[in-house]
Amino acid sequence: MATSAVARETVFALRRQIAKIEGTLPERLEAPAGAAPVDADVTPQNPTADVTPQGLTIVRRGLAVAPPDAFLRTGAEGLDTALSGGLPKAALSEIHGAATRDAGAVAGFALSLVSLILKQGPRLPVLWIGTAEIFREAGFPYARGLHAVFGIEPEQLLFSEAPKLLDALWIAEEAARMTALAAVILEIRGSPQRLDLTATRRLHARAQNAGRPVFLLRQAGEAEPTAAPVRLILSAAPSASRQTIAGPLAGSIGRPAFTVSIGKSRTALPGQFTLEWNPDEHSFEERRGEERRAANSVPVVPAPRRGKGPAAASGAVLAFPAVGSPAAGDQPSPSERAAHRRPRRAG
Fold this sequence. Notes:
alpha/beta, 2 domains, 7 helices, single chain, nine-stranded mixed β-sheet, Rossmann fold
């Protein structure tokens, strides 16, 4: 915790120094709890007076104050607090998967965010851009699952498959400026050199101008410097047991769950959260420690040899029975052998 506090103070000091060099006001992340508003009298000589209520989370860059609806709240109080209000709606946000096997969790989390966006605003189409490589490795979302789990109509999700990364970046830059789209998703695999700080800065600037979010999905790549103000690291979490009137149903599979770690944010606050997606309410719920489930709750057994049923779990073997050669145990009897395999008689 001491290291985290020192890191936060360092980041805040750098922000103040940058603001001093640029001649602008530094970012204000959160109003002090219990403190009265300062500079409450707005005058032409003081246009940047803080007239927000106590405890209201705001972000001020230069002379502009971000409105409360500038952030997409996930509904998980811990994550939203750590992100100082949620994910910015008009910005580039990076959702990172450490391995290719996390592609499903990354895509599911991105679709959950899209569902929240469509729930709050007009139900505009969403453009999903990717290369042929990533679609071949990760696949496409299931159309029926889009409506059943996320409340997204299949015709609202548009896909654009580009043969090369340069083509995908060009499509994303052109789509990021369009206000006719609710959101833009760019899915990339690995750590390509073309996806550098300059390319992400262009995406972030166009997202800000259009007032629309751009989600950058990074699959199986290392975390690199980008212009995205927020980076979330995603992986699948074990689902909790399904809740019934009588209590948890043993052996059942509950709601989809995600492990979300904050890799980068405006507040420089680290954190790891387990979120469950409610497919009925189309909202996130934060899972507490007592609701967690073991990663491997079912014993892993070897596959059946002849396909008649699961093999028994391995245990302590004390002795083997005295039988014939194991190699000859599965051989047919002489009467069952094929005719052409019988010994031939001469003459």
